[in-house]
Amino acid sequence: MDDQGLHYYDYTTIGKKIKAILLPIVTKESLVKYPTIKSISLVVGEGMTVPEGIGPNGPISASFYVVGSMVEHFESPYYLAFKLNNNQEVALDLSKNAKDKTSIKQVISLLETNTNTKVNLVKEKF
User: Fold this and answer.
1) Which residue from 5, 77, 79, 118 has the fewest beta carbons nearer than 10 Å?
2) What's the domain of life for this entry (predicted)?
3) How far is it, in rounded angstroms, from Cα 80 to Cα 60?
């Protein structure tokens, strides 16, 4: 985020994800200008259970450590969801910043100031 708006990379398809991995230099950044933002939501998840059969007592116990380490990243999804005037949706992942509440407050304050839009809180259950 800067004075122009919100900069992001479009990873909506597998092809775009592969291109970003293999050719990061030619992957173009997208820009959402503040006036094009229709609504903003801060989405917070309330936990996710490990699927049955995964873990030390299940048949997939050998993968427990890999799956367990990935699941911890999804236990508390935390992202900003933007709906644009053209009904396009953009999500900004904040999971790695979930414990840094000061930075999140600054981002929300900056968004509200630049868009004249109040950020809604959405709680999701899994």
Assistant:
1) 118
2) Bacteria
3) 34
